[in-house]
Amino acid sequence: QAKEAGKNRYLPYQESMQHEIERKYMLENELRHALDRNELQLHYQPQFETATGSIRGFEALVRWIHPVMGAISPAEFIPIAEDSGLIVPIGRWVLREACLKNKQIQALYFPKSVMSVNISAVQLLSGGFTEMVAGVLHETGLSPASLEIELTESMPITSFDSAIPLLETLSGWGIKLSLDDFGTGYSSLSYLKRLPFHTLKIDKMFIQDIAKETGGSAITEALITLVHQLGMAVIAEGIENDEQLRCLKKWNCDCVQGYLLGRPVPFAEVPGLFQVKA
Ligand code: C2E
Ligand code: MG
Ligand code: MG
Ligand code: MG
Question: Which residues form a coiled coil (predicted)?
Fold first, then answer.
């Protein structure tokens, strides 16, 4: 009996591992058909210039609405797409759709709109990435200066080394490069200097610490100053309250993005963001 109990002790853990593996496998199979079945869509979250409060552009965020399971978070399915290679066709679709929609936004509402698109390291380093980007820009007629590529800082530094020539090509065309989730990954500030990024996005983790008595404010303020001294612009993400916005203004953070200012919305709701409020 003791033996039995001993064996069972490990079951809950094994079972949850098993469930996790099964769910991953199932999601991967479903994700294989997501594009063909039109289950993917983009939401657009506005980004604002801190000083003036005017719109700068949007970040495109992918959504997967499965007919049976409902909405599945990109935090769950993007890693699966990366592991399976599905990120290549999905990422191409995202880029094309985001560029098309930005072209429409520019024509109808805001000529200077910049569209930020998240790109996975796997996608960037898969063959033919720069050619794919050039093709999409050509096809959609969007100017390179109206496109910003966001790369997450959590990609290993060795990947950044092999990515440098690609990033330089993209930057040479006038595409803006932004380092996402800054502060959560590996890159040191000295390393940053060697990478051709124009913008750095301070992760929401730091923004959440603002105004808490933990020294978080001092770190964020110092970060903004340092990034400016390295010649880059700063976007703060995850602004949820007025106090955070007030501090970021005071510290000359260039752009802001967050639920306080605007949630990610489907394209149909984008025009409303340009309507003058009475
Ligand atoms: P991210 O690029 O750092 O995007 C910001 C995330 O924060 C988004 O989550 C956004 O909805 C959320 N967010 C925005 N404002 C606030 C706020 O005020 N408070 C809080 N708590 N959250 C806020 P989402 O859309 O769930 O995306 C999660 C991550 O998935 C993204 O993080 C990005 O890394 C990845 N992702 C999303 N779309 C794509 C895509 O098209 N391609 C790739 N490769 N990755 C994507
Ligand atoms: Mg992003
Ligand atoms: Mg990210
Ligand atoms: Mg981020």
Answer: none
Lowest-confidence pick of 14-23, 125-134, 156-165, 224-233: 156-165
Q: What angle do CA 150, 153, 156 make, to 5 degrees?
A: 120
CA angle 213, 217, 220 (to 5 degrees): 150
Confidence (pLDDT) at 1? 47
Q: Is the CB of 152 under 6 A from ligand 1?
A: yes
Residue 72 one-letter amino acid: I
Residue with tokens 């063959």: 127
Task: Tell me the per-residue pLDDT of 90-136, one tens digit each, with 9 for 90 and over.
Answer: 999 999 999 999 999 999 999 999 999 999 999 999 999 999 999 99
Q: Measure 180 CA to ligand 2 centroid, in angstroms.
A: 5
Question: Atom of ligand 1 at shortest distance to CA of 61?
Answer: 38
What does the pLDDT read at residue 91? Answer: 98
- CA gap 19, 14 in Å, rounded: 9
Distance 208 CA to ligand 1 centre (A): 15
CB of 78 shorter than 6 A to ligand 1 = yes
Ligand 1 within 6 A of CB of 39: no
Tell me how far CA of residue 55 lies from CA of 85, 91, 112, 143, 162, in angstroms.
35, 25, 9, 18, 34
185: exposed, middle or buried (Cβ count in 10 Å: 0-12, 13-18, 19+): middle
Between the CA of 79 and the centroid of ligand 2 the distance, in Å, is: 14
Nearest by Cα to 177 from 133, 221, 222, 225: 133
Q: Among 117, 118, 154, which is best to mutate for testing ligand 1, by the most ligand atoms less than 8 A from CB?
A: 118
pLDDT tens for residues 214-227? 677 888 999 999 99
Write the ipTM.
0.98
